Amino acid sequence: MDQIRVLLVGGPADLPPADCIREVVSMAESVKVARGNGYEHFRYSGESLELDGAHLPAFRWFDRTRIAE
User: Fold this and answer.
1) pTM (predicted TM-score)
2) DSSP assignment string, 10-64
3) Which of 9, 18, 11, 3 is nearest to 38 (CA)?
4) What pLDDT was estimated at residue 33?
5) What is the DSSP letter of 9?
């Protein structure tokens, strides 16, 4: 199945730019990024943003959860 390149927007200010480009299989899935003792969650916002001449779907930050122990 083809991967879709997406851009993560929002969330922690110290999220490295390299972590803001991800690939998803479906626009309906959310993206979960492990950071410290938790996860940052992003979901498709319905918009696209330009990055280096390419228009990428924008996944905006919507939640942070803690890693279960």
Assistant:
1) 0.89
2) SS-TT--GGGGEEEES-TTS-EEEEETTEEEEEEEEEEEEEETTEEEEEEEEEEE
3) 11
4) 94
5) E
